[in-house]
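seq/struct pair 1
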Amino acid sequence: MIRTNRDKVVMISVQGKVADPCIRTGSYNVDKNGVPFLLPGTGGITYNIKVGDPAFGWAGDHVEPGVSTILNIEKRYDPPTRGYNFYACVGNEASIITGDAKGTKGVVTGHHGGIEHVIIDFPDKALKKMTIDDKILIKGYGQGLELLDYPDIHIFNLDPDLFFKMGIIENRKKGKIKVPVAHIVPGKLMGSGVGSLSMGTGDYDIMTTDEDLIKEIGLDTLRFGDFVAIADHDNVYGRSYRKGAITIGIVIHSDCKFAGHGPGVTTLISSSKPLIEPVIKKTANIADMMKIGRKRLQKR
């Protein structure tokens, strides 16, 4: 088993509420081809889109699967709201603590930068009972996780229990780890969010302006919750291109209409050196691993 410092990682509570649905304006926006559009976007309780579903093809823009949450929508960029985004790690347990769905547990599936949302998957029974006023408590656990034998591989935003469910294998002779991913994304396709220093919050986008290329390399089959490898991208001290670097992330929102945007990826594992070997596995998705989202429905 890969040695970690999980016994030293702090678990601390953070509490948010369902985020109000948002749009940029009440008038038309213009897409990457100059075509006006007016579509649903971020926030709220999304009833019919879940992790495990396709990230492409929806009549929406930057759509978040499941329940979008925030600490304080009026103070979106204040330290406490950013703290909510930071402490909540992918795979963490979330509990509804108010309303008719009180006591239901869910799973954190990602952070969305700019809007500062934490995205959570809950069972359908809970979604039917929830309201925008409901509050959610998350057991924030994962920031500070380290791989003791691989100091040049860095972990962000990842629950230790989920880390060990990902099927990661170590190659001690080469000092590398092999990580199952659903897709490998060329670094040249990374857009909005590149240059950000906030690897512990938010996400950055796979650009999809070149639709022919996206189809050619199979990225049009991306699903919400897919684990992906971003080639030649370093997320250790900021998001940037670096030849040989590898970043592992998770797809957290849908395709987008704006130039420089596309499905969002929250950072999970990164190395500035070529120490991470991605291995293609089509079921490398949080829904498959934790039996949530679309897989929860199939199981039932």
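seq/struct pair 2
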Amino acid sequence: MKIYQDLLDKKAKLGVIGLGYVGLPIALEFAKRISVIGFDINPKRIEMMRNGQDPSKEVPSSEFEGRDIVFTDDLNVLREANFFVVAVPTPVDKFNVPDLKPIIGASSTIGKVVKKGDYVVFESTVYPGCTEEDCLPVIEQISGLKMGADFKLGYSPERINPGDKKNTLRTVVKIVSGSDAEALEEIAKTYEVVVDAGVHRASCIKVAEAAKIVENTQRDLNIALMNELSMIFDRMHINTYDVLEAAGTKWNFLKFSPGLVGGHCIGVDPYYLTHKAEALGYDAKVIAASRFINDNMARNVARKVIQHVLRNTPDVNNARVLVKGVTFKEDVSDIRNSKIIDTVKEIQAFNIKVDVVDPFAEPEEVHEEYGLELASGAGRDYDAILIATAHAPYRSLTPQDLYDITRPSGLIADLKGMFKGRITERDYWSL
């Protein structure tokens, strides 16, 4: 079952299922050389993309121009594809248990449209074994086809980093894997069309799945260490960023920083690994401890702000806090798994009024996802300002800008250390 040349010759089409932060850039990049069908179950998003708009605000409208792509929510149109890429989200539920509903739903969709000779490649982050043990049976049952004899299967973990214009699909090595040697080679050659950095051929699908989980689990562990250090150093009254700056002069020091761990990767993926480990009878203590530290960091930040307000505000009943930044990282609109929400709710639990502003977040999305109303702008006389995200507009602020809207007894809580050494007329704290 050869597919690569047919795609290049446009005798076959490539279908991308799920057009979010991962799927849309992939679809548009392939559409420079290959006929692509972009499929999403959200008709509103489909209409926006037909008009050259990325609902996630990551891809500029110019990237839609001159692309051989059709956007659809119609299964009959998707059925025209022969090489399917699945890029749907893989979240966890409120108990941090992997929620496979989106990817199982996508597998069901594949089962309805896959044909003999087709290829199916999953990009969604999952635990090792999920592609073959959870997704494949759904495809085979619904389609009546068998992997190997009728269609090929593969896994190629996404490495899209929202807001990053340097490390892109083209510039980052792509891991690929296949259900057999032929599948591996055809999938690898297909991805080489859009990945200038080249591809790494993993020995099997499970290895490729595990590699993706390890990438983010490793970062989670290192950030957890920094967060734990920051809590220790805070009790010693020394600045963590000063310590890291000094330690970073050693050639082999790994440069990680403390902070809130949100988003869809670092704050979620390790739970997929601990879930699978538990199913196999192993208690992943180190990974679980890191998740505990990072998940509780938002409440530790809240306590620091609350303590200052309660100790330094004459009229606590009228205390006010300003939170600047609600997206999970700087200069993006992505609010998924934003940990600053936990901080806000913890502060509000003490009947302290909290105004939240963010120049990148969509107010409707924030309200729908978290029930939180974004303020149209900052007020004055705040008892504390919490700068949670290093957005470009915040990096250009001066200390005086912060003094102007805080009381003399106010606190500037700067999670990213942007104003370290510059705040002299207010209390200052950072991780």
